[in-house]
Amino acid sequence: MERLALYADLLCKWQKSINLVSASTLEDLWRRHFLDSAQLWTLLPQGAKTLVDIGSGAGFPGMVLAIMGVDTVHLIESDQRKCAFLREVARETGTSVTVHATRIEAATVCPVDVITSRALASLDKLLDLSSKFRTEHTICLFPKGQTADIELTGAQQTWTLRTEKFPSLTDANATILRLSEVRREL
Questions:
Q1: What global pTM score does this model have?
Q2: Known binding-site residue numbers for S-adenosyl-L-methionine
Q3: Which of 3, 5, 43, 118 has its CB surrounded by the most CB atoms within 10 Å?
Q4: Does position 186 have pLDDT exceeding 80, yes or no?
């Protein structure tokens, strides 16, 4: 908790000069960002060691999961200022993460056990962007808002996947999608 509190302090400090999260969420930072990210912990597959968070932004959920104990976490973010923030959080909290300051398409990360992304793109686009990081055993954890079912229906036109849906602890209208066995339809 101390490390997460330090993270929150850094976020509030850096938010003054870099738009890391929506200003309207700062008053509810712990629920909207930290709990929303931490709730993925219970959905991680047993034995998962490697995770890539695409479009990391301010580090949600990847940095939170790294602080909670995921062994190897890669944060991919193209905004250099946000990457500087992520590196500072890692340094100040003593968290081992690799920050990739590049576009997702250019990132070179070996296939991983888990892929996360929060508030980046539609499900179909996320599956496309994350394809090079997946194997047949990779699990995708994607928090989605009230359009989750619509996005899932759209993605199933291009992708075959095993889907599990979990209610969000932070928003009654949100869902966490846990996807596995993801394959593009030919």
A1: 0.94
A2: 55, 60, 104-105, 118
A3: 118
A4: no
